[in-house]
């Protein structure tokens, strides 16, 4: 049993404490070579952390998305038989839904199939990322290249792309709201290649927001397209009625005969009806365009990823100190506890 263990069992007085400090310093002085050796070996082993867990770069993008619903303009459009909903109709992206949308399989895979200009060449993001994954280092799949068209994928491509999606969501991508009460969303992508981190952040934000806007305004855009088609059709009918009315006037031989004016009266009525219909549809179309603009939420990019990117992970000297500290602590423990 060591001296330290004996003191701990019977209690430590002030004299014992002095003796313990003197004994400890003596044991450490006698084992200084071992402590120095363990410190150096620990520092060298600590440097392996750069290989096992290299320093990575974090690209950050902050966006602000308008939330809430309108009421006054929505009631106004309802009087004209138009239902374009409010901001976020049906509540399909309420709360954390938009945040979760970034991490869906469709959105991540859609982004991976985007092209970006990296290392002087335009490449698919998935082909650029693939060599940095465990599947890219596998001899069986090392030469795998993803085609540009999803229709040309093989079952192997589909399976590995799904695995890469899980890798992105689990290790690279982080999306969250810094404050639940605010409409701000932070998007972080962390990777050892700073150019990929920046490109992927910009691509996934662009794809997600585009899909978000398409989904939010789908109903309003559908109504707008229908009204545009009706406006164009009524315009053609009005032009035909105008031509028919002019022809009826030209064919009128004697204005004194009422029977000869029937065609002219009919064409005139059709012209008035067509004109009134065209005017009414044009009004509704204008209101629908206003409704679409009001329904489209305001999206503001608050922060862009720009160089230099924030670094994450330990630097080489931090790994060196950490490893050396562990080695020194282990050598000290052996010197104090063990008898030899």
> What percent of the residues sit in helical stretches (DSSP H or I)?
55-70%
**Structure classification:** alpha+beta
The residue-averaged pLDDT reads 77
Q: Supply the CATH architecture of the largest domain.
A: 2-Layer Sandwich
CATH topology of the largest domain: Bacterial polysaccharide co-polymerase-like
Give the total of beta strands.
7
Distance between the termini: 12 Å
Rg measurement, Å:
37 Å
Number of structural units classed as domains: 3
Q: Which CATH top level class of the largest domain fits?
A: Alpha Beta
Largest sheet: 5 strands, antiparallel
Verbal overview:
- The protein is α+β, with helices and mostly antiparallel strands.
- The chain is 59% helix and 11% strand.
- It has helices at residues 3-10, 14-30, 32-47, 49-52, 72-79, 97-101, 105-112, 125-129, 155-172, 194-216, 218-251, 262-295, 316-337; strands spanning 56-65, 115-118, 121-124, 173-176, 184-191, 299-303, 310-312.
- Strand 4 and strand 5 form a beta hairpin.
- The longest helix has 34 residues, at 218-251.
- The model has no long low-confidence stretch (mean pLDDT 77).
């Amino acid at each position: 049993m060591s001296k330290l263990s004996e003191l701990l069992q019977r209690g430590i007085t002030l004299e014992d404490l002095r003796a313990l400090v003197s004994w400890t310093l003596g044991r450490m002085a006698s084992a200084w070579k071992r402590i120095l050796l363990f410190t150096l070996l620990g520092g060298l082993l600590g440097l392996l952390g750069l290989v096992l867990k290299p320093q990575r770069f974090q690209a950050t993008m902050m966006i602000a998305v308008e939330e809430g619903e309108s009421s006054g303009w929505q009631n106004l459009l309802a009087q004209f038989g138009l239902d374009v909903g409010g901001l976020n109709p049906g509540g399909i992206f309420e709360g954390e839904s938009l945040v979760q949308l970034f991490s869906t399989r469709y959105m991540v895979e859609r982004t991976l199939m985007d092209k970006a200009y990296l290392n002087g060449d335009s490449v698919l993001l998935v082909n650029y990322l693939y060599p940095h994954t465990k599947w890219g280092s596998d001899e069986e799949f090392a030469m795998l290249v993803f085609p540009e068209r999803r229709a040309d994928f093989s079952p192997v491509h589909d399976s590995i792309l799904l695995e890469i999606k899980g890798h992105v969501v689990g290790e690279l991508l982080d999306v969250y709201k810094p404050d639940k009460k605010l409409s701000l969303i932070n998007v972080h992508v962390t990777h050892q290649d700073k150019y990929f981190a920046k490109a992927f952040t910009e691509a996934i934000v662009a794809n997600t927001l585009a899909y978000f806007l398409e989904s939010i305004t789908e109903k309003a855009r559908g109504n707008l397209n229908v009204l545009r088609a009706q406006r164009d059709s009524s315009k053609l009918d009005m032009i035909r009625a105008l031509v028919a009315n002019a022809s009826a006037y030209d064919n009128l031989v004697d204005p004194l005969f009422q029977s000869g004016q029937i065609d002219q009266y009919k064409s005139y009525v059709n012209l008035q009806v067509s004109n009134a219909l065209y005017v009414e549809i044009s009004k509704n179309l204008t209101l629908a365009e206003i409704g679409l603009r009001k329904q489209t939420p305001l999206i503001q990019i608050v922060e862009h990823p720009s160089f230099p990117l924030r670094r994450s992970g330990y630097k080489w000297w931090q790994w060196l100190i950490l490893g050396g500290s562990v080695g020194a602590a282990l050598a000290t423990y052996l010197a104090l506890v063990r008898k030899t």
